[in-house]
Amino acid sequence: MDSRISNLEQNMTDSKVSLGRMEVRLGHIEENMLTKGRAAVYALASLIAVGTAVLGGGWWVVQQYLSPILAAIPK
Q1: pLDDT tens profile 45-59
Q2: Domain residues of the chain, as ranges?
Q3: 62: helix, coil or strand?
Q4: Which runs of consecutive H residues, i.e. helices, occur in 1-75?
């Protein structure tokens, strides 16, 4: 009976160590998890980047095509 109890105690110690490791891993996952706030910030940043690229492209089109047309119009 004593040997069975000591085996159970040993298994319980191993289980506690495993649970401790899992808690540490879950803590790291929780720190690095994507939250709604982070997703909103990333979406806003990408929207600003895309908007800047579109406006820059539009400005290039105006410079390349519209400026010569306006310059050719007699005053």
Answers
A1: 999 999 999 999 999
A2: 1-33, 36-75
A3: helix
A4: 2-32, 36-61, 67-72
Q: How far is CA 16 from CA 13, 62, 66, in A?
A: 5, 68, 73
CA angle 55, 59, 68 (to 5 degrees): 165
Cα–Cα distance, 16 to 21 (Å, whole number) = 9
Residue pointed to by tokens 């495993």: 18
pTM of the model: 0.51
Classify residue 65 by its DSSP letter: I
Per-residue model confidence as pLDDT tens digits over 6-45:
888 877 888 888 889 999 998 888 888 888 998 999 999 9
C-alpha span between 48 and 58 (Å, rounded): 15
